[in-house]
Amino acid sequence: MNIVDLFEQGGPVMIVLLAMSILAMAIILLKLFQFSRSGLRRLNFVDPALIALNQGDYKKALNELEPQRSPVAHVMECAIRCGADPLMSAKDVEAEVSRIGSAEIRNLESWLRGLSSIAHLSPLLGLLGTVTGMIVAFMSLEAAGSRVDPSILSGGIWEALLTTAFGLTVAIPAMAAFYYLEGEVDQVRASMKDVSIRVLRHFGKTPSSISSRDDDKIEDETHGI
User: For each of the chain's 225 residues, which pLDDT tens digit applies?
Assistant: First the structure.
């Protein structure tokens, strides 16, 4: 029995699952290409930019960041430009850096919710196909009456279980890919927060929320002594 026959035996749910598997694969490949093109793992520009910033050479720091495609570089560039602007208060700088960072994260997270939905819905659809297949199998068994052929029931069961197996086959790689991609986004989010704090501290415009947390930490350490 070839693949086409298996899909015919599994019923319409198999077609839906096939479409979901194709969509999941497209999302995974698209996000991997996007992440690779953005160079999420390449952060070798951070230290040279911070060194130039600490030396007071803002132009050199920006030159280090401008060619980069990384979202971290975009947030860092925004923090430097806003921090160096004397007309912007710490609250204004925090709002602008947060706006740019949120936009970058939203771009990275695009379609991830769809991938997560596919991973969660595929087993349910497979189970639905199995339940409906079992119903059909038992209806056929009932229609046979006293002339019961065990092959009717066994054949109906394995045909029904096809959808569950295919649903899990779609869900497992989709869920694994989702967690991997989500982890990459979390890593970028942490890097953004780290570089923005380091840049804004240089300009003395660290967000008040962060400063208060630092003060609380220092106070707790002091009490511990």
Answer: 577 777 777 788 999 999 999 999 999 999 999 999 999 989 999 999 999 999 999 999 999 999 999 999 999 999 999 999 999 999 999 999 999 999 999 999 999 999 999 999 999 999 998 888 888 777 777 776 666 666 666 666 777 789 999 999 999 999 999 999 999 999 999 999 999 999 999 998 876 544 444 444 434 433 443
Q: How far apart are CA 159 and CA 7, in angstroms?
A: 10
Q: Rounded to an integer, what distance in angstroms lies between the CA atom of residue 176 and that of residue 195?
A: 29
With tokens 């694969």, the residue in question is: 25
In 3D space, the residue among 185, 208, 199 whose CA is nearest the CA of residue 78 turns out to be 199
- Do 128 and 163 form a contact (C-beta atoms < 8 A)? yes
How far apart CA 131 and CA 169 sit, in angstroms, is 18
Q: Which amino acid is at 30?
A: L
Classify residue 11 as left (phi > 0), alpha (psi -120 to 50) or beta. Answer: left
From the number of C-beta atoms within 10 Å of its C-beta (0-12, 13-18, 19+), residue 25 rates as middle
Judged by DSSP in three states, 97 sits in helix
CB neighbours (10 Å) of residue 90?
17
Q: At what angle do helices 3-10 and 12-38 cross, to 10 degrees?
A: 120
Taking each helix axis from N to C end, the angle separating 90-109 and 12-38, rounded to the nearest 10 degrees, works out to 140
- Which are the contacts of 73, defined by CB distance < 8 A and separation ≥ 6? 45, 65
